[in-house]
């Protein structure tokens, strides 16, 4: 080689050594940069903690100020009782203090000791809040100096002083933490400054080395060109892979849409199936109703037709056919009431009932109904809690259970009817709510019920009796009555050992004088008040004509109309002793009409007549006589006489067993 070539080789060796030195310098530079960054990060962290400590301290002062303003607002509210002024100030600052405590908990969430202190602070805040809220409620109710006394009592509560002490404890803890953070910040700042100086000197060395590394740039350019071509090839491969991914994603999306469509179709099919099941149940209910009504109407139509054919024949034979027709009509009315009870639409007219007295008074009725071969035991303690239910519905339910028990015992056995006070938890029996209840139980020694029969016992028209022996609405009626009364029904049974059916009725001390007249009753001459002037309001023309004729036969002076508006016009022109009104009428209900008439005059009696009462009308019936449709002339006479003589105690309608 030429000397010039030797010089070139020598220069490249020196350049390689410089490059190696520069590389080492770069490594050192990176190390220092890392150390500086780490120190700065630690310093920033310490500063952040320092700022958080400042924030916590300021927030404790804000909470203390909010509590003081809330207390001052409540005190002002106690003095001037200005709900829209001082009361709003108290509630606003008290809620603000609660939000600030929640924010304080977020600030100290990484400090377990501070978190414990904040939780104690919130507990004290809740305790004092109950005292202040109680004082605010008393003040709001305008109870005079009681509100001010409640306020002073609340301000002297230990929780009030404990809150301020706890806030000071939190602030002092944060101040201690703040001093530690300041010391850490100073240490990290000094370390960062020293490392920065080292970094400056090293930067000079790196700059010198960078000049020599310029030679390496040429090689880097060549390598860059090669890397670029390689990257282009990789890009093409990536685009191909991306296209494949898009294609697969589209396939997955299509499959997902197909699954959604299938799910929607399945849901529609399930909804259609549920609708079919509902319609099947409605069809079963309708068929049962039609079957029973056709049987009863056959009795009514046949009895009336035979009576018409034998009007000129023996009186006893005519009366026998008419009695059969009346019995069929009565059974049809009873079926309607059972259907309303099952649908929870039967008008319940509750009153205070003493279970012990009611059960004791039913002994003779049950003896006649069940026969001499059934031994009846009534266990009703005198200390049984009162209940607020429809007494006639309760009597019917007990008689229904007794008749079912007699059939289960084939007419021979022991029947126990008992009442007991019980306390139940939520859902302990069916869907019952927690509370105090009176349990009325009917226990027999009959054949018992299998589990599958118990499960279906409350279904409408489900019965294990032979055809013609029952409608299957007895337990459904009892179920509806119990739920309307706020209670529940339970069954305990074992095959071959008997059954116990229990009605749970909520304990109550409510009293309401609602008197329900029986739909069928014999007429007594002593009940008539001849010559009384009566206004009859009935929208059905056939019922209106029949009612007027019955009243005329009873020696009353009736005037009839078909709407509430016409009744008001007639009432303004004449004086009446009694107003007989249907409950459900177009445009104006019976209770609404009576309310208007009572505003005009108070010196007249009221008798409501109805076949159905909705929930919105039942409150307007309280304090008045009520006669259910259909009714006999005897029942009408008794209801009218009782309404005209309200001072006399109403007669008990008893209970009629429904089989």
From TrEMBL:
The EC number(s) this enzyme carries: 2.7.13.3
Segments forming domain Response regulatory: 533-644
Pfam families on file: HATPase_c, Response_reg
Protein name: histidine kinase
Stretches assigned to coiled coil: 231-281
Top-level EC class as recorded in UniProt: transferase
TM stretches of this protein: 16-37, 198-221
CDD domains (alphabetical): REC
Keyword list, A-Z: Coiled coil, Membrane, Phosphoprotein, Transmembrane, Transmembrane helix
Residues annotated as domain Histidine kinase: 288-509
Organism: Sphingomonas sabuli
In-chain residues carrying the UniProt-annotated modification 4-aspartylphosphate: 582
Reaction it catalyzes: ATP + protein L-histidine = ADP + protein N-phospho-L-histidine
GO MF annotation terms: phosphorelay sensor kinase activity
Signal peptide: none
